[in-house]
Amino acid sequence: MELAGAITIFLGIYLSCLLVISTWRKHSRYKNLPPGPTPLPLIGNFLQIKMGDTLKSLERLRDQYGPVFTVYFGSKPIVVLCGHEAVKEALVDQAEEFSGRGAMPTVEKNFQGHGVVFANGERWRQLRRFSLTVLRNFGMGKRSIEERIREEAQYLLEAFRNTKAEPFDPTYFLSRAVSNVICSIVFGNRFDYEDKEFLSLLQMMNESFREISTPWSQFYDMYSSFLKYFPGPHTKIYHILEDMRKFIAKRVKQNQATLDSSSPRDFIDCFLIQMEKEKKNPSSEFNTTNLVLTTLNLFFAGTETVSSTLRYGFLFLMKYPEVEEKVHREIDHVIGRHRVPASEDRMKMPYTDAVIHEIQRLTDIVPLGVPHTVIRDTQFRGYTLPKGTNVFPLLGSVLRDTKYFSSPEEFNPGHFLDENGRFKKNEAFVPFSSGRRVCLGEGLARMELFLFLTTILQRFALQPLVAPKDIDVSPRMSGFGNVPPTYQLCLVPR
Ligand code: HEM
Ligand SMILES: *[C@@H]1O[C@H](CO)[C@@H](O)[C@H](O)[C@H]1NC(C)=O
Ligand SMILES: *[C@@H]1O[C@H](CO)[C@@H](O)[C@H](O)[C@H]1NC(C)=O
Predict the structure, then answer these.
(1) Which positions are annotated as binding heme (predicted)?
(2) DSSP string, 434-455
(3) By alpha-carbon position, which residue is closest to atom 6 of ligand 1?
(4) Which of 268, 304, 342, 358 is 20 to 30 Å from 448 by CA-CA measure?
(5) Spatial distance between the Cα atoms of 128 and 138, rounded to a whole number of angstroms
(6) CA-based nearest residue to 366, from 412, 415, 432
(7) Residue 25, pLDDT above cutoff 70
């Protein structure tokens, strides 16, 4: 009897909460949000979102509520945008309003709004403009970014030759090479593939990525206002990122000690020179906090994205050998077997360009996008989004928009070719997102994908260990990021 009494009281309280909340919502500033499933107190729409398969759950809600809807993660409303039209109307047509960075609770304690990815307002503007300038090759000494990538591609070739056409897992080969490109840009040097310090840096990156992609972390992201008072996976992420921050801070000290303002060697030198220039400006955002955390951002945003895309790319090429064959032929025709590929070759290689676009489209590296927020009260499609409302542009739903891709689920380079075999742009191609927050490393990433892929395919043919039709290309994990399946292959010299 006592149990029944307790349950009745609990239900009573719970139902009154429901009533209070639904009344409150009608009168609150959130009263004109897009439609969506009714949230429950504390847990929000937990019952409608399947952890570990967030994209699918959200796409199911789109079928019910249309391309723009609201879901509650805990007590926080999130406005979700699906398909090319809705995402473009927000991020491009109302670019300024939608340019804020939304909350990412799992890493909040490490960054606290510093560093270009998590900054907002004037801080973000200054850090973004500066980082873009440096990445576009202004003022970073004598060696261009392209040279740095070409050098690294040669080291990667050598490592591949050492596999002697035996089966191996390409994961670490690719992530070391890609990470070294960022190292060369920010630290001014690449690391030997066996260097202990380098391997521990990669280990930290690997672990934090794994932690951030677990269903637990996603759960934490949704219910952080409550869970932050308890120990959990976020404590682990915090410590790993803290170790990486210390590593970078140490490198910054080394640069400071050896800085020659007249010949900057790398990104850190350029930043230090800017700090010096703005020493007297009280509103300058150029200090060591932003330097270290922006550098950490570049590592994170620039390593796993490019290397996972390449890893997925190999897999698609093995599943569709006729596509690989055509790329080989185009490389032989335009570059030949001996000259090292250069980024200007891309213009003469529409087929390879289309293949890389199609690889990026299906790899869909950040299917849910990176959270945005509106920086002021915003009218959108007749709804009112109060300042600070989080917005998820579902990039995965744009990349598979049936209106823009004839066979969205299939690997088909034809999505990016016209009837004469010329490269054809597609406005729903948004793996880098769009608008003011568009990926800051887009140019670098595209150059890396092209140079690494052509350099490898100029020398090697990919050989799977199973029949092409048996290759499974569905992601191993799909959370914040899509993680490609693990596999082995042989690289056969050609
Ligand atoms: C295939 C490779 C890559 C993909 C698919 C990719 C994708 C993205 C996406 C979807 C965003 C979020 C944009 C938004 O907020 O709407 C982003 C942001 C960002 N990416 Fe990339 N990225 C890639 C490579 C890189 C590289 C190589 C770098 C390093 C330089 C980089 C640096 C950044 C930075 C700093 C931001 C934050 C920009 C800001 O908040 O203003 N990314 N990227
Ligand atoms: C991280 O390392 C583990 C084991 O060392 C490996 O299985 C996994 O694929 C790595 N993950 C990434 C993203 O490199
Ligand atoms: C850098 O500036 C930010 C505010 O813009 C401040 O929070 C931070 O403590 C500063 N860091 C240093 C090392 O001065």
Answers:
(1) 439
(2) -STT--TTHHHHHHHHHHHHHH
(3) 432
(4) 268
(5) 14
(6) 432
(7) no
What are all long-range contacts of 434-439, with beta carbons under 8 Å and residues at least 24 apart?
Answer: 434/87, 434/88, 434/91, 434/92, 435/90, 435/91, 435/92, 435/95, 435/98, 435/99, 436/91, 436/95, 436/96, 436/98, 436/99, 437/91, 437/99, 437/101, 437/370, 437/372, 439/301
Question: What pLDDT, on a 0 to 100 scale, did the predictor assign at position 396?
Answer: 95
Exposure on the CB side of residue 112, measured as CA atoms within 13 A: 7
Question: What is the DSSP pairing of strand 76-81 with strand 390-393?
Answer: parallel
Instruction: Return the ligand number nearest the Cα of 395.
Output: 1
Rounded to whole angstroms, the Cα distance separating 494 from 485 reads 26
Q: Whose CA is nearest to atom 8 of ligand 3?
A: 289
For ligand 1, the distance from its centroid to the CA atom of residue 424, given in whole angstroms, is 23
Contact 426, 452 (CB under 8 A): no
Going by their DSSP bridges, the two strands 383-385 and 378-380 should be labelled as: antiparallel
Class of domain 32-493: mainly alpha
CA-based diameter of the chain, in Å? Answer: 85
pLDDT in tens, 248-288: 999 999 999 999 999 999 999 999 999 999 999 988 999 99
Is there an atom of ligand 3 within 6 Å of 115 CB? no
Sign of CA dihedral 170, 175, 176, 180: positive
pLDDT in tens, 115-153: 999 999 999 999 999 999 999 876 666 778 999 999 999
Closest CA to 44 of 20, 18, 65, 19: 18
What is the reported pTM?
0.93
439 carries a ligand binding annotation = yes
The answer, yes or no, to whether any atom of ligand 2 lies below 6 A from the CB of 209, is: yes
For ligand 3, mutation pick of 114, 125, 245, 253 (most atoms within 8 Å of CB): 114
Asked whether 57 lines ligand 2 (CB < 6 A), one says no
pLDDT exceeds cutoff 80 at 14: no
DSSP labels, 414-433: GGGB-TTS-B---TT--TT-
Cβ of 287 below 6 Å from ligand 3? yes
User: Amino acid identity of 347?
Assistant: M
Pocket probe mutation, ligand 3, options 112, 125, 275, 290, max atoms within 8 Å of Cβ: 290
